[in-house]
Fold this sequence. Notes:
Elements: E1 5-10, H1 21-32, E2 38-42, E3 60-63, E4 66-69, H2 71-81, H3 92-123, H4 129-141, H5 145-148, H6 152-162, H7 164-169, H8 183-199, H9 209-223
Parallel strand pairs: 1-2
Antiparallel strand pairs: 1-3, 3-4
Helix pairs in contact: 1-2, 1-8, 3-6, 3-8
Amino acid sequence: xxxxxxxxxxxxxxxxxxxxxxxxxxxxxxxxxxxxxxxxxxxxxxxxxxxxxxxxxxxxxxxxxxxxxxxxxxxxxxxxxxxxxxxxxxxxxxxxxxxxxxxxxxxxxxxxxxxxxxxxxxxxxxxxxxxxxxxxxxxxxxxxxxxxxxxxxxxxxxxxxxxxxxxxxxxxxxxxxxxxxxxxxxxxxxxxxxxxxxxxxxxxxxxxxxxxxxxxxxxxxxxxxxxxxxx
Length: 231
């Protein structure tokens, strides 16, 4: 089947293993909407060259004549453009909730995953991406990648405690979105999928309801999340 909808995402040397947390949010957003699309995973250094340099980062969605970047902006675009299909937010309150979840994920989960996975990500890349990644992340993190992961085992042990908010929420409802998943669920899923694909580590507590929730998200939409195996 041909489609005019293309999602540009991020990969390392293996194009069959896209790993960006933000792109995984968009993959599930498109599936949530029931929209067909072609995914084109790209290395870091190729991304700025596609679509006439439209964006330096992915995800980038081409939908016919429209180009949209940033996973949250894409989700908003999809809800506005396809209102007859299942909503990703279920109203203004859902958008506001998703902004909070995004902020929590990117200020709490993402930095911890970087301290665990940054060297694994580096090793998934080919040149010149390895050089680009090492240089840019060393500058951003203020130290060599090897130093970032120096306390990796302690970070792994501490990670389940970071999931306490969602763990408590799951005692009241099956998804962040309530009775069914919304974009807020895909935000947290994207972070944990990033860790799964790049490290393959079990970052959950024993008998963790968050693991059950994550496994359920992996099974959504014909198990789209399982199309890429754990490292």
